[in-house]
Amino acid sequence: MLAEVAGLLGEPARTRILTALLGGCAFTGKELAYFAGVTAPTASSHLSRLVAGQLLVMEKQGRCHYYRLKSADVARAIEGLMMVAAPPPTGWPPGHRVEPALRDARMCYDHIAGRLGVSLCDTMLRRDYVVLDDGGGELTDAGARFLTGLGVDLEQARGAKRRYCRSCIDWTERRPHISGAVGAGVAQAFLERKWIARIPDSRALTVTAGGRRKLAELGVADHLAAPAPRRVATAGAQPAAMPVRRLG
C-alpha cells in the first residue's frame, strides 16, 4: 500500500492537485485540471487514480462532481512530505521561498498553520492549556475553559469521528501547531468571529484588525507581516476566477 501511495504522489500533476486541495475546499475536475496545468481528460484520469488510492473522495451535487481530500490524516501526511521536500541546508531557513502570507497564516486542511498556528500553540503550552506528546495532544481543564471562552465548540469536537486533539509539525516553522478536532474547532471559531479571513485564490489567511486586537489581548506573539495582498500565486493556491465550494 505504501508503494502505491508513493506512486500516486510521484506524478507532478497529481501533486499539484493534492496541494490545491490542502485548503480544505472541494473543486470540480475542471477546476483541478486548471490548477494542475493539464487537460480535463488527463485530470479525470489522475482523479480516478487518487480516488481509487483513497487519497481523495468524490461527491456529486446535481450535475457537478466535487473532489476533496479524504481526511485530515491525508492532509497531515502531505504537509509532512512538504516538510521533507523543503530546500536543502543551502536554502536555510526552511520556507524562505514561501510567500509571506502563506508562512504567516494558512489553512492546513481544516486547522490553522503557519506562524499564527504555532504562536497559538506556544501560548497554550506556556499556560499549561494543552499537553502535546508524540503527535498526540490533550486539553487541560483550564485549556478547555480557555477555548470555550473563545467560542470553540468542544462538544462538537468530542463527537467528531477523528482524533480529538493532536499536534502537527508545521511545514514552514518546524514547530508544532494544534490539529485534530480541536484545531478544526479553533479555526472555525476564528473564521466565524472574523478574527481571520481567507485570502481569495489561496489557502493563506489574513488576520483582521479585530483579530490582531484579540490576539494581543490573549498575549499571542504577533510575528505576522502586514496584511497580505489580495492574490497569492504560490504552491497551494486555488485557481483564479473559479468558484470555490466548501462541502460539509
Structure description:
This protein is α+β, with helices and mostly antiparallel strands. Helix content is 43%, strand content 17%. It has a three-stranded antiparallel β-sheet with strand order 1-3-2. A two-stranded antiparallel ribbon has the order 4-5. The protein is globular. Mean pLDDT is 82; it is low at 225-248.
Which key features would you list for this structure?
single chain, 248 residues, alpha+beta, three-stranded antiparallel beta sheet, two-stranded antiparallel ribbon, 11 helices, disordered C terminus
Number of helices: 11
Report the sheet-strand fraction.
15-25%
Average per-residue pLDDT, rounded, comes to: 82
Distance between the termini: 28 Å
Order of helices and strands: HHEHHEEHHEEHEEHHEEHEEH
Outline = globular
- How many beta-strand segments? 11
What secondary-structure arrangement, pairings included, does this model have?
Blueprint: H1 2-9, H2 12-20, E1 27-28, H3 29-36, H4 40-52, E2 56-61, E3 64-69, H5 72-84, H6 100-104, E4 106-108, E5 111-113, H7 114-126, E6 130-133, E7 136-139, H8 141-149, H9 154-159, E8 166-169, E9 176-179, H10 180-192, E10 196-198, E11 205-207, H11 209-218
Antiparallel strand pairs: 1-3, 2-3, 4-5, 6-7, 8-9, 10-11
Summarize the structure.
With 248 residues, the chain is of the alpha+beta class. The chain has eleven helices and eleven strands.
